[in-house]
Design a protein that fits this description.
The complex is a heterodimer. By secondary structure, chain A is mainly α. Chain A has 12 helices and no strands. By secondary structure, chain B is α/β, with parallel strands linked by helices. Helices cover 31% and strands 28% of the residues of chain B. Chain B contains 10 helices and 13 strands. In chain B, the strands form 3 sheets. In chain B, strands 5-6-7-3-8-9 form a 6-stranded mixed β-sheet, with helices on both faces. In chain B, strands 11-12-10-13 form a 4-stranded antiparallel β-sheet, with helices on one face. Chain B has a 3-stranded antiparallel β-sheet with strand order 2-1-4, covered by helices on one side. In chain B, a hairpin with a 2-residue loop joins β11 and β12. The radius of gyration of chain B is 24 Å and the shape is elongated. The chains are: A mainly alpha, B alpha/beta. At the A-B interface, α1 and α5 of A face α3 of B.
Chain lengths: 271, 309
């Protein structure tokens, strides 16, 4: 346990010490939040009620998709994981600890956003704080697991950019962050349901903010949870210590499995 | 009786159709410094990494204190300390954090004294990426021995180190040896291997080309002794091959260099020749073949020069 705590504390400090991680964990999401608060609340009256969950989701995606995978690839390529293996650091810790420390960074940013969005930008306030926190932790876990999986299967930084942006960019446009999902044409709504963000937004809106959502928020929670668990298990299963010494040789296409709950969601909920 | 700490038997490793290591066997005893030498691609790193449990052998067996690195990697972790050739640490980790991190996983108290001992005390809060190459290698060694393992594997430990750091590191190795620690040292530095290793194995194309103590290995070479002579009038330059037991000779700078099977016969003849020609000796050097000479003789037979580079 002591080793796990040492490792966790180290990893958390790195999230503040490394410039790129600090940018993705804090500066980018908070800067974007302030910008959107100043611009979007005036331009789009439907934005303010969902601003808090939307900006938290931006923070989650920045931390987990744009930040988390890079140290994984860099550590593997630089032989750092080999050194860890020799010294008895288990693969489970290497996969789990960055997910947990990312969740802590996300919680800290979420506290800042949640506590300031109402007073400064007249954003909606949760009516059920318990569900708000639960969905925050669930969303953070699912995205962090997806980010870790991207790091595990990406052979280099360019691949991370490709895989991460496949989720990040469409989520920003179609994920219900800037424009409510209800306003999307049916075809685009169905496409958007291939992404995790509409489920997180639906769960928050329906369960924590007392607003209507496009589908049952409980189903959204289950779909997010299923994807997160599959991604987490696969990240452990596909983890390799050394890119030059792949002894397990699993099929990287297995990494598409966490998208299966979203595909089912798009089929059955997008109708 | 000497205790066998590391036993490698008929070990081979292939990558597809490429044979990296081809059925090598050797034993390392407790408290011994064993040098693993060889040109690039000879199989040194594959052997070291297999002993560390990072690679699985294709055939044969390996054991470290009776533990199979492949089957019981968990038991191996506290038995070995490894200094990898590559950095092995995150760039933003400090020496202090690294010490606490690895000691926590080995379930031992951090050895802060070792950071001071290896000259890293002032840099304990500096990020790894800001350390010099020498400091990084010293930190890697510090971490490898912090949990006091009975077996230490060092891969090019002094590469990039200045003379002072190299001597310091050799002192640490000697201290470890005195405590009974077994050290396997993979190196390109023949002088280091000759100075530090009790026995060495020279790997060539995945096989052991020669093994034994450095003195034994150099003795089994061509046996030629190098005699370098400089004189005031340089009269020796005209005396091509006239001395007894000399098989080859050459001229380099102001020295005439003879390769002799019997220095006892050659040296007096040279001195007599100088006296007879009223020339005066400026310098005379008699050198036995070094491990490097023997290494080159084995690994590059076409380029060897009677046992000398």
């Amino acid at each position: 346990m002591t080793a796990f705590l040492h490792h966790f504390m180290y990893d958390f400090r790195i999230g503040l010490r490394e410039k790129t991680l600090l940018l993705m964990n804090y500066f980018f999401p908070l800067g974007f939040y302030v910008l959107m608060g100043l611009l979007m609340t005036g331009l789009n009256p439907t934005f303010a009620p969902t601003m808090t969950p939307a900006m938290i989701l931006v923070a989650i995606m920045a931390c987990t998709l744009l930040g988390l995978p890079y140290p994984v690839v860099e550590s593997r390529e630089a032989g750092i994981f080999r050194s860890f293996k020799i010294n008895g650091v288990p693969a489970l810790s290497i996969v789990t600890i960055p997910i947990l420390s990312s969740m802590v960074h996300i919680v800290l940013v979420s506290v800042i956003i949640t506590s300031t969005a109402g007073p400064f930008f007249k954003a909606g306030v949760p009516v059920n704080w318990g569900y708000f926190v639960l969905i925050l932790l669930l969303s953070a876990f699912t995205f962090a697991s997806l980010g870790m999986l991207i790091g595990v299967i990406s052979p280099n930084s360019r691949s991370i950019v490709l895989f991460s942006q496949l989720i990040f960019l469409p989520s920003m446009i179609l994920g219900g962050l800037m424009i409510p999902s209800e306003m999307l044409p049916p075809a685009l709504l169905r496409i958007s349901l291939l992404l995790p963000t509409p489920y997180a937004m639906a769960a928050w809106k329906g369960m924590a903010f007392g607003m209507g959502s496009t589908f049952d928020p409980l189903l959204a929670v289950l779909i997010l949870l299923a994807s997160g668990i599959i991604a987490f298990i696969l990240a452990i299963y596909l983890f390799t210590w050394d890119s030059k010494n792949k002894q397990r040789g699993h099929n990287p296409f297995l990494a598409l499995l966490p998208l299966l709950p979203f595909v089912l969601g798009a089929i059955f909920l997008g109708a | 009786m000497q205790e066998d700490v590391v036993v490698v038997k008929d070990f081979n490793k292939t990558y597809g159709t490429t044979v990296a290591v081809d059925g090598i066997s050797f034993v390392v005893h407790r408290g011994e410094i064993f040098g693993l030498l060889g040109p690039n691609g000879a199989g040194k790193t594959t052997t070291m990494e297999s002993l560390e449990g990072l690679r699985h052998p294709t055939g044969g067996s390996l054991s470290v204190l009776a533990v199979d690195p492949t089957r019981s990697p968990g038991r191996l972790r506290d038995l070995i300390g490894v200094q990898l050739q590559s950095s092995g640490l995150p760039g933003s980790m400090t020496p202090l954090e690294a010490m606490e991190f690895f000691c926590a996983y080995h379930q031992v108290e951090p050895r802060y004294d070792l950071l001071d001992r290896l000259g890293l005390g002032e840099k304990k809060n500096a990020q790894f990426s800001t350390l010099s190459a020498g400091q990084q290698r010293r930190l890697a060694l510090t971490l490898a021995i912090a949990h006091d393992p009975p077996v230490v594997l060092l891969d090019e430990p002094t590469a990039g180190l200045d003379v002072g750091s190299r001597i310091e590191l050799h002192d640490v190795m000697r201290e470890l040896q005195a405590k009974g620690t077994t050290i396997i040292l993979a190196t390109h530095d023949m002088a280091e291997a000759e100075k530090m290793a009790d026995r060495v194995a020279i790997l060539l194309k995945g096989k052991i080309a020669a093994t034994g103590s450095p003195i034994e290995l150099t003795a089994t070479g061509s046996g030629l002794v190098k005699i370098s002579v400089a004189s005031e009038a340089a009269c020796l330059e005209q005396n091509a091959g006239a001395f007894p037991a000399v098989s080859q000779q050459s001229i380099k700078d102001e020295y005439v260099i003879y390769y002799s099977h019997d220095a006892g016969a050659t040296v007096p003849a040279i001195l007599d020749y100088l006296k007879a020609h009223d020339d005066h000796l400026v310098d005379l050097r008699v050198e036995r073949p070094s491990l490097e000479d023997r290494f080159l003789e084995i690994t590059q037979p076409d380029h060897s020069n009677g046992g000398y580079s």
